[in-house]
Amino acid sequence: MSLLELFVNVDDFCQSFLPVWERKLISDGSKKRRRTGQLRISEIMTLIIYFHQSQYRNFKAYYTEQVCQHLRGEFPNLVTYERFVVLMPSVFGPLSAYLKSLYGHCSGISFVDSTALEVCDPHRIHNHKVFEDVAERGKGSMGWFYGLKLHLVINDCGELLACQITPGNVDDRKPVPTLCKGLFGKLIADRGYISQSLFEQLLETFHVQLIDYTAAEEYEKSTHAFD
What are phi and psi of 63, to 5 degrees? Predict the structure, then answer.
């Protein structure tokens, strides 16, 4: 998706979402002054999302080298990097709602998996402060890490159906019941998710059948053997 297409999509969402969201916010009674020339919420969201489409791994380098140097024509009210970092938390709510609006529809065949989100090099664990209250040591398919876990459910078209972030030491099976709300049919997972108790819970609560990915793959191969 190009920058223009992304901004139009985000801005259209904000125009319908923000008025409703702002009416439901709890106010402390004080008047909020919007600074002249400040970036709009849709612009902040666009720049954050566009970062993940770029080749940059470091947000500061992306903002100072790419945004400030090459995107001033598209964003004439750009602020300094330090000011942008202050503004970022203000769009967490709209960003979460925007992500939710992009969810696909369950087709009856879903896949669940998780991936590690390392917050620092293992040698810097004791000096790391940013995520010290939520990050934990965990073990994934690539070995031990320190950080968080991203749990995802997608449909057979690759569309996102649900997601959740947990500390790195949380068992992959624990978020599954929450992630399965609104699903039906079959949920395919690797063997780390397979347990009798989880199978029974999903089947009884959501009528979702938990299937071992390896078993499903072997079954598919056996059926194609007769083609």
Answer: -70, -45
